[in-house]
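dude i think i finally got it to work??
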Amino acid sequence: MKKAINLIIMYFVFLILGTVFGTLLYTMFSNLLNYVAGSKLTLFSVESLFQSFFYISLCMIILICPALSFYRVRHPGGFSQAMAYIILSAFTWILLLPLDYKLISSMSENIKNEKEHTPLSKDYFRQVDGEVYYFTNDFEYTQTGALEADAIVIHSVGDNGYVNFRPVRDTPSFKLNIAAAPFREILVSENFRSKTSTSVVNFRILAGEIVNCLSAGFLHFLFYLSFALALCSIYALTNLFDWRLLNSALLFLLSALVMGFNSDFFASWLSEIAVRTDGNAVYRFLARWTSEPLVFVGNCLFTLVIMIVWIVTSAIKRHGRKGA
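look at this
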């Protein structure tokens, strides 16, 4: 019973601390995304804090059950701990996440969603695709409503480099803006952006899909429920191996697999299967009951496999203890 109580305590500790620190860090990061060299850097603002809280709270609620599974690897318990986990999982996905969504929906109406567009500053050298831009004056709106500034453009490609002086418009299709994405300033992007990293889990897509499920009808709720069951089921394998490190590695891989599968990491692969099975009677039947038939089936199969593995390994271990 003590370990069950400890699990409940750690649930709220992980959730509260993760949300607080995650919100602060993500607020700093989001403000850094829109920072322009030479302007005043504001790390925290009311609007960015609330918007970061909306996003991070969803992410932490998604991650809390896998976090408890990792905690259980280090602090294994018996039946009471497992029941506490089941109750906490149900509380998370049936009550807490819908409440968080309603809180976001009610408060976001009073928060400005559009960020002020900060024009690029003058007196800085910015290089992209063999060209160097140096703005000699601040960007100003023209009569047509476009942001425009005069710039010295140095073309330094090979031995045929040259310099010209021309007006430049600050538009989304401007070379500097494309190269800097998702940052506003290419000078910041060059220092903070990783050009080679790829992420299996896209929390932005995952959080968006969950919000869509909660705001839509029954068909989307089945997909939401299947994802919750798949993610929570990995708790059953927390003591699959005698070596804790192997259990932790397995939980990490399974958590990444479930979240990646539900955040469009395998979207191209699933779309090919959907095209081939579109005329299938089973696929058409599932499409009547869930918005994402293939993902729904994948989540259900994953949960079923986890449960079968748990039952088999539990029976083997129980038989081994009796034989000893």
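Residues 2-33 form the longest helix (32 residues).
im so relieved honestly
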